[in-house]
Known about the structure:
Blueprint: E1 25-29, E2 34-39, E3 54-58, E4 67-68, E5 81-84, E6 90-91, E7 103-106, E8 114-115, E9 127-130, E10 136-137, E11 150-153, E12 173-176, E13 184-185, E14 197-200, E15 206-207, E16 220-223, E17 229-230, E18 242-245, E19 253-254, E20 266-267, E21 275-276, E22 289-292, E23 298-299, E24 312-315, E25 335-339, E26 349-354, E27 357-364
Parallel strand pairs: 4-6, 5-7, 6-8, 8-10, 9-11, 11-12, 13-15, 14-16, 15-17, 16-18, 17-19, 18-20, 19-21, 21-23, 22-24, 24-25, 25-27
Antiparallel strand pairs: 1-2, 1-3, 26-27
Amino acid sequence: MSLIFKKNTNFRIPRPSPPQIFTTSRAFNSSGDxxxxxxxxxxxxYWVQNETTVxxxxxxxxxxxxxxxxxxxxxxxxxSTITIPxxxxxxxDYAFRSSGLTSVTFTATSSVNxxxxxxxxxxxxxxxxIPxxxxxxxxxxxxxxxxxxxxxxxxGLTSIGESxxxxxxSLTSVTFTSPSSANxxxxxxxxxxxxxxITIPxxxxxxxxxxxxxxxSLATATIGTGVTSIGNSAFNHSGLTSVTFTSPSSANxxxxxxxxxxxxxxITIPxSVNxxxxxxxxxxxxxxxITIPxxxxxxxxxxxxxCANLATVLCYVPQSxxxxxxxxxxxxxxxxxxxxxxxxxxxxGTGLTFQGNTNVTVxxxx
Length: 366
């Protein structure tokens, strides 16, 4: 028995349909009726502002849309998703403020380089991946986005400004895409968020005051090699139990109240640090030991005040480095200070008084 196969001349491999090209931009309600004007070119400011019936938007994808104007979609409360064409280079101030957006999609070849002030503020957006093309964010573009849980920051962004993500009550994860260009993290940038951990990239030079203040769930922080200063109250009232400085650290100053009121159990101050600000570790009641490296020139007033369980200090600096008062007030009693054996500024003994603690033991064995 033999089998004979005949050629099927009717068979054709289906070709994918070319992507549909839209040359104009239009907005629609849930019935499919158009809302507002048909737009040719960039999206003008105030286009469908306050049009609460808008549920979907088609933006022209023929490279004609280069910007989305200010207030263009503000208070479009029924608009839940939008895709930003790759031709768009800027998103204006308040563009989507108080809209119903839960999802924003940027194309893989996005050209957006700026996102304006309050652009997505007060929206129920759940996640955002800021494209690598974005170099600047306006003031508080994601403020009070209470459903925002994850943020991915692209490689192009040069700074995280003041209050840009503050009060994002669901924000648990922030990732900087490598290699990051961010050189600073601004005041209150992530304050009052439930972040659980943060890794600050090596590109960052400064962490400004209160950047992570009141992040009560923030348990661990890794600080990159480029950071030179940790601002006043940068992490105060956070949930930090552990801080790691990536080696070789460039940190030269720890600001006043930088880690105050945290449950820190361990921190290694890098030997690049020159100054520890006043009240830097105030009320870190879980801290049991600390090493002050010989690079430190000044220790401010109340630096370790109310660290009630601080029992051991490995002190590689002379007494003169303690330029303020009460650095060890209400620390453990007795408090043991281990100093360098060659440091003449320290005198060994027990029951000594130093910097607010009246029961200090000094041992010179380092």
